[in-house]
Amino acid sequence: MGTVHAKSLDPLPMHGRDLGVHPDDLVEPPEPEQESKQEILENKDGHFCVCSRDVMSHVNGLGRTKEDLLGYEISEVFHAKNLIDVMKKSHIARQRLLRLGIFKEVEVLIDTSEGSDALPNGLDVTFEVTEVKRLTGSYNTMVGNNEGSMVLGVKLPNTFGRAEKLTFQFSYGTKETSYGLSFFKPQPGHFDRNLTLNMYKVTGQFPWSSLKETDRGGSAEFNFPLGMTNHTLKWEGVWRELGCLARSASFAVREESGHSLKSALSHTVSIDSRNSAIFPSRGALLRINQELAGYTGGDASFLKEDFELQLNRRLFWDSVLSASLWGGMLCPIGRQPSCIADRFYLGGPTSVRGFGMYSIGPQSEGDYLGGEAYWAGGLHLYTPLPFRPGKGGFGDLFRTHFFLNAGNLCNLNYGDGPRAHLQKLAECLRWSYGAGIVLRLGNIARLELNYCVPMGVQSGDR
């Protein structure tokens, strides 16, 4: 009967008696575009059918998913002009359905129309779907930022039938314990445009500052694309409780102890053309974030700006050159000084290698207090392992790593001009260089083993 069973766009025959298509028919003279009218012909339990002028589409295997959501995701199939176009748009529709996170499997069947309701010279496109379970759980461990944690999670995917997701997560770590409830709601037909609501309690320990912090709060976050950019608008309200981690905490940290209420609006814009977030070999990233606290209430008032820039370029012998630059500034509003929990911190394997974790900049009696302005940059060269052991297999997960890092963290006198600010940021420059080996752990993390030589060490740096 001539059925095409495709999970991807693999090369397929361009002719065949059963499909009724001749190679010469695939290139058609341009015709005036007609409006593709869609009509729901059948809507039974587990089956959804939509028909246009030349294509009839079926979705089998539905349970709790609403039909209007599927209509948005597969609508492009009805604008196809020939068989190849139908195959391409069906593949795109399959990817869109999988992206929703509500189907375990999606298979596509393309066939000629048959039966009493068959379309003349038409095609039937059938999506065979398998929905995920109503309730799923997970257990995993996470390692990062010099700490480990055990994470337990419960998810209710497709909560109301339109790709919503309700998530509860509990994390018990070596330095912090947290739990949170999250609700995710995408706009039908525009998955990248979504709303997330969060309620949480987070307890963290920060030994470099002899500080312990407990946050209880909620947030609302709206994500949307605009042209080549992605935007995030966020409101967060949090009740913060700061305390001393040890009896030896400095007086400056003890002064910061107590309760505070922070209500902040923030906006983030990003452009990301990298081919990988973990091990990019080409592309660039630009991320700019602004945060305004105090305008919607609370006793924390400040304006905070920070940015991240990364450029990657492939060189000879499968080597990659990567350059990164970060920077930020925090400006208190009113006479109240900034809070230790809102300032920037610098140092460690994620910024300036060779220095202790967040152990650069202003400090008091060995406790690091953070700064209101910072910058950091890095130049990295990644090359294959010498003599390419395990080429084409396990050896490709490893890279030789040469790096040069630099940065500075300080407090500014906002009565001075921009030139004085730049001069102060350029003073007391910390930098380091070294080499090592990097291991890629799938597409979720990377493990580095480096030998670092810190330079420009100032009094009080660790």
How would you briefly describe this protein structure?
The chain is mostly beta strands. A hairpin with a 2-residue loop joins strand 7 and strand 8.
Q: Note the beta-strand portion.
A: over 45%
Taken in chain order, the helices and strands follow as EEEEHHEEEEEEEEEHEEEEEEEEHEE
Structural class: mainly beta
How many strands appear in the DSSP assignment?
23
Low-confidence stretches: 1-42
Specify the helix fraction band: under 10%
Report, as a whole number of angstroms, the end-to-end distance: 74 Å
Radius of gyration: 28 Å
Figure out the total of helices: 4
* Overall morphology: globular
Mean pLDDT: 83
Lateral arrangement of strands in the main beta sheet: 7-8-9-10-11-12-13-14-15-16-17-20-21-22-23
Biggest pleated sheet: 15 strands, antiparallel
How are the SSEs ordered, and which strands pair?
Elements: E1 3-6, E2 39-44, E3 47-51, E4 55-60, H1 67-73, H2 83-99, E5 103-112, E6 123-131, E7 136-144, E8 147-157, E9 165-173, E10 177-187, E11 190-206, E12 211-226, E13 229-244, H3 251-256, E14 258-272, E15 283-298, E16 302-314, E17 320-332, E18 363-364, E19 367-368, E20 373-383, E21 398-410, H4 418-426, E22 430-441, E23 445-455
Parallel strand pairs: 4-6
Antiparallel strand pairs: 1-5, 2-3, 3-4, 5-6, 7-8, 8-9, 9-10, 10-11, 11-12, 12-13, 13-14, 14-15, 15-16, 16-17, 17-20, 18-19, 20-21, 21-22, 22-23
